[in-house]
């Protein structure tokens, strides 16, 4: 009988609660004990009431909920060795030998580090007499599995992260609302969406709403983009379009890494095309609301797979990250997945080809 804990960490996303539900229920259904760690790594470091044994009914109704009902946090202590030492001690004191982390690339990087350090953490706990040799003996291996929860869809090695499609649906709905008023007044709207290092939400909402132009971090526009954008928009107007929608990812930059702000794009449209232009920053609305069907499905299938991966792990086998690739739920080595999550690094180094390659995307110029 295993004791399997689940936690959510980093930025919240719709579907995280569904993932927690799936883990709790499939652990119980397979005859194991299920635990929730509240408030992300903070709960692991602090222990006490933040680590709670769960029963079947505790997660009733969680499937459709937005956000995460067990809380999430950014935890500075877990980035330091002393924090991970406290976390290891709390897991052992609770008898937990399987940990499922649902979070973004930062959280999964932390989980992978924790896994790698595990044997030395135990040694240190014994050396410091925080725990006895007998106490640590049954916990020689800690099985970890990662679930990717993020609205940004910013993990390279999986097709979709839990929450991305809910956020996309919210953005499309908001743009539909704006469309009505924009067309009535023949206005232009600059819509700022989330995505600091990842343009997926901007690209997909642009495609889904028929936007006139988009800006994303991975593929900054070349010099003279202002004219190119204005030419395209002017052409659309000549064809009878009564509104203009430009979508700007919050991390949009030019090729010198200078931010492309919504206000600057607005200024260009006003100065060059004399359009009555407004800026709408969607902000945290994009994170809210219930999970769409796709995220409920993803959270459930992946949550079940994470528990299976923990229960069936062979000694020495690498910790998995649960991915979805070409519509199949599969396990990938966590360590590889985390290594791939270096798009931000590529952008910082102005290696935009590499950024696009890591995103598994190639766009032809047209
Ligand atoms: P996300 O998981 O959404 O990418 P963050 O990058 O903020 O969000 O990471 C969430 C938490 O994961 C951090 O507050 C920290 O506790 C932990 N974490 C992130 N990166 C590391 C790391 N390199 N080492 C240890 N812990 C980390």
From TrEMBL:
Q: Which residues bind ATP?
A: 11, 74-75, 104-107
Alphabetized GO MF terms: 6-phosphofructokinase activity; AMP binding; ATP binding; fructose-6-phosphate binding; identical protein binding; metal ion binding; monosaccharide binding; mRNA binding
Binding residues for substrate: 150-152, 187, 194-196, 250, 278, 284-287
Primary location recorded for the protein, binned into one broad class: cytoplasm
Where is this protein found? Cytoplasm
- State any GO BP term from the record: fructose 6-phosphate metabolic process
Record carries keyword Kinase: yes
Domain named Phosphofructokinase is located at 3-310
What are the record's GO terms for cellular component?
6-phosphofructokinase complex; mitochondrion
- So where does Mg(2+) get bound? 105
Where, by residue number, is the active site? 152 (proton acceptor)
Q: Where is this region: N-terminal catalytic PFK domain 1?
A: 1-366
State the UniProt keywords alphabetically. Allosteric enzyme, ATP-binding, Cytoplasm, Glycolysis, Kinase, Magnesium, Metal-binding, Nucleotide-binding, Transferase
Q: How does it assemble?
A: Homotetramer.
Q: What does this protein do?
A: Catalyzes the phosphorylation of D-fructose 6-phosphate to fructose 1,6-bisphosphate by ATP, the first committing step of glycolysis.
The entry assigns this protein to a family as follows: Belongs to the phosphofructokinase type A (PFKA) family. ATP-dependent PFK group I subfamily. Eukaryotic two domain clade 'E' sub-subfamily.
The identity of this protein, by name, is ATP-dependent 6-phosphofructokinase
Q: Which residues of the full protein are shown?
A: 209 to 574 of 976
């Amino acid at each position: 009988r295993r004791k399997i804990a689940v936690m959510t960490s980093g930025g919240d996303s719709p579907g995280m609660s569904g993932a927690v539900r799936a883990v709790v229920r499939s652990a119980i259904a397979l005859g194991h004990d299920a635990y929730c760690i509240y408030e992300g790594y903070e709960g692991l470091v602090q222990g006490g009431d933040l680590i709670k044994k769960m029963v079947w009914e505790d997660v009733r109704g969680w499937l459709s909920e937005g956000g995460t009902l067990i809380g999430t946090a950014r935890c500075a202590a877990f980035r330091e060795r002393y924090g991970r030492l406290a976390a290891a001690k709390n897991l052992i004191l609770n008898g937990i030998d399987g940990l499922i982390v649902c979070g973004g690339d930062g959280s999964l990087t932390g989980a992978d580090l924790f896994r790698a350090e595990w044997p030395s953490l135990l040694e240190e706990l014994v050396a410091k007499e925080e725990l006895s040799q007998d106490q640590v003996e049954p916990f020689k291996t800690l099985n970890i599995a990662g679930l990717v929860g993020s609205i940004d869809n910013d993990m390279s090695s999986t097709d979709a992260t839990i929450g991305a499609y809910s956020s996309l649906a919210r953005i499309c709905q908001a743009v539909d609302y704006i469309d009505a008023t924009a067309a009535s007044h023949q206005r232009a709207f600059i819509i700022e969406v989330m995505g600091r290092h990842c343009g997926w939400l901007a690209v997909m909402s642009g495609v889904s709403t028929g936007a006139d132009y988009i800006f994303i971090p991975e593929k900054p526009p070349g010099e003279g983009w202002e004219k190119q954008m204005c030419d395209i928009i002017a052409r659309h107007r000549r064809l009878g379009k009564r509104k203009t929608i430009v979508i700007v990812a919050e991390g949009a930059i030019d090729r010198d890494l200078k931010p492309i702000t919504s206000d600057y794009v607005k200024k260009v449209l006003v100065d060059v095309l004399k359009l009555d232009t407004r800026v709408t920053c969607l902000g945290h609305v994009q994170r809210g609301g219930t999970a769409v069907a796709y995220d409920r499905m993803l959270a459930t299938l992946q949550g079940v797979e994470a528990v299976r991966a923990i229960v069936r792990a062979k000694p020495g086998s690498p910790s998995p990250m649960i991915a979805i690739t070409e519509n199949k739920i599969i396990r990938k080595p966590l360590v590889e997945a985390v290594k791939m999550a270096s798009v931000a690094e590529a952008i910082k180094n102005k290696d935009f080809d590499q950024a696009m390659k890591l995103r598994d995307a190639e766009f032809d110029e047209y």
